Amino acid sequence: MTTKYSKLVDVTRCDGCRACMVMCKNWNDLPVEPEEFKGSYQSHDKCGANTWNVLTFTEHETENGGFEWLFRHSACMHCTDAACVKVCPEDAMHYTEFGTVNTNYDKCVGCGYCVQNCPFGIVQLTTLVDEKGKEYEQAQKCTMCVDRLQEGMKPACVEVCHMDALVYGDKADMVALAEERLAKVKDRYPNANIYNPIGVDGTQTFYLLADKPSVYGLPENPKVPTSATVWKDYAQPLGKAMLGVTTMAVIGGFISNKLFNKQGEEGGNHDE
């Protein structure tokens, strides 16, 4: 049985320094992504193809009429039941030996189904240029620094966090640590909770939040879209059996587009 590892994000310890963002850019050699100044402390609206984690700043009014900043390290959640893995027609989105979700760039064809179905709105497409000057698209997101994990190192963002707000290790240990920390902050944050949504069978990046998820821009009960389950468990296997892999790639695109266009009617949530 594969041991699952997780990153615990304890927002009650975060001081908003953004070191995790800088370290992520440096380690993964991600290009600069300038954004227009919007009069906010937050540098980017959300994660993007070239910005794999974003520190969010939320102005929050306390119950006694006071004011405080709420910070959140936002990145790929690495769902245990990942919609992006279910809908990928090329098996480019896959689970790693660490229980995280990564992209095989050699297989990715830039179809965008992962973007459309991510319940957290994290996966994005980037435009690249091949050696012949032809443009193509690929799905991009946080990899949990799988290259570092394979060498026995921690993810870059965890390594640089000076507040111990980001912690990485065996998932069972991280859950126990989250529960221990939750008990300690309940007096200060009565609404504090552990965010490890069961609708996606838990996530490998999970949170200790000081307030309810929606306050931090997170969906209260994210789920794998019905269209993704239909595609992975029924349409794709049946089509491959009847038509062969090559023909299915064409027909499957048509089927999945029809399914995904109905996603909004099914209540899919694409907010972070």
UniProtKB/TrEMBL annotation:
<feature type="binding site">
    <location>
        <position position="20"/>
    </location>
    <ligand>
        <name>[4Fe-4S] cluster 1</name>
    </ligand>
</feature>
<feature type="binding site">
    <location>
        <position position="88"/>
    </location>
    <ligand>
        <name>[4Fe-4S] cluster 4</name>
    </ligand>
</feature>
<feature type="binding site">
    <location>
        <position position="76"/>
    </location>
    <ligand>
        <name>[4Fe-4S] cluster 3</name>
    </ligand>
</feature>
<feature type="binding site">
    <location>
        <position position="24"/>
    </location>
    <ligand>
        <name>[4Fe-4S] cluster 2</name>
    </ligand>
</feature>
<keyword id="KW-0408">Iron</keyword>
<feature type="domain" description="4Fe-4S ferredoxin-type">
    <location>
        <begin position="99"/>
        <end position="128"/>
    </location>
</feature>
<keyword id="KW-0479">Metal-binding</keyword>
<feature type="binding site">
    <location>
        <position position="142"/>
    </location>
    <ligand>
        <name>[4Fe-4S] cluster 2</name>
    </ligand>
</feature>
<feature type="binding site">
    <location>
        <position position="14"/>
    </location>
    <ligand>
        <name>[4Fe-4S] cluster 1</name>
    </ligand>
</feature>
<dbReference type="GO" id="GO:0030313">
    <property type="term" value="C:cell envelope"/>
</dbReference>
<feature type="domain" description="4Fe-4S ferredoxin-type">
    <location>
        <begin position="67"/>
        <end position="98"/>
    </location>
</feature>
<dbReference type="Pfam" id="PF13247">
    <property type="entry name" value="Fer4_11"/>
</dbReference>
<dbReference type="InterPro" id="IPR051555">
    <property type="entry name" value="FDH_Electron_Transfer_Unit"/>
</dbReference>
<feature type="binding site">
    <location>
        <position position="17"/>
    </location>
    <ligand>
        <name>[4Fe-4S] cluster 1</name>
    </ligand>
</feature>
<feature type="binding site">
    <location>
        <position position="118"/>
    </location>
    <ligand>
        <name>[4Fe-4S] cluster 3</name>
    </ligand>
</feature>
<keyword id="KW-0411">Iron-sulfur</keyword>
<feature type="binding site">
    <location>
        <position position="108"/>
    </location>
    <ligand>
        <name>[4Fe-4S] cluster 4</name>
    </ligand>
</feature>
<dbReference type="GO" id="GO:0045333">
    <property type="term" value="P:cellular respiration"/>
</dbReference>
<dbReference type="InterPro" id="IPR017900">
    <property type="entry name" value="4Fe4S_Fe_S_CS"/>
</dbReference>
<keyword id="KW-0004">4Fe-4S</keyword>
<dbReference type="GO" id="GO:0046872">
    <property type="term" value="F:metal ion binding"/>
</dbReference>
<feature type="binding site">
    <location>
        <position position="84"/>
    </location>
    <ligand>
        <name>[4Fe-4S] cluster 3</name>
    </ligand>
</feature>
<feature type="binding site">
    <location>
        <position position="111"/>
    </location>
    <ligand>
        <name>[4Fe-4S] cluster 4</name>
    </ligand>
</feature>
<dbReference type="InterPro" id="IPR017896">
    <property type="entry name" value="4Fe4S_Fe-S-bd"/>
</dbReference>
<dbReference type="GO" id="GO:0051539">
    <property type="term" value="F:4 iron, 4 sulfur cluster binding"/>
</dbReference>
<feature type="binding site">
    <location>
        <position position="145"/>
    </location>
    <ligand>
        <name>[4Fe-4S] cluster 2</name>
    </ligand>
</feature>
<feature type="binding site">
    <location>
        <position position="161"/>
    </location>
    <ligand>
        <name>[4Fe-4S] cluster 1</name>
    </ligand>
</feature>
<dbReference type="InterPro" id="IPR014603">
    <property type="entry name" value="Formate_DH_Fe-S_su"/>
</dbReference>
<feature type="binding site">
    <location>
        <position position="114"/>
    </location>
    <ligand>
        <name>[4Fe-4S] cluster 4</name>
    </ligand>
</feature>
<feature type="domain" description="4Fe-4S ferredoxin-type">
    <location>
        <begin position="5"/>
        <end position="35"/>
    </location>
</feature>
<protein>
    <submittedName>
        <fullName>4Fe-4S dicluster domain-containing protein</fullName>
    </submittedName>
</protein>
<feature type="binding site">
    <location>
        <position position="79"/>
    </location>
    <ligand>
        <name>[4Fe-4S] cluster 3</name>
    </ligand>
</feature>
<feature type="binding site">
    <location>
        <position position="157"/>
    </location>
    <ligand>
        <name>[4Fe-4S] cluster 2</name>
    </ligand>
</feature>
<dbReference type="GO" id="GO:0015944">
    <property type="term" value="P:formate oxidation"/>
</dbReference>
<keyword id="KW-0677">Repeat</keyword>
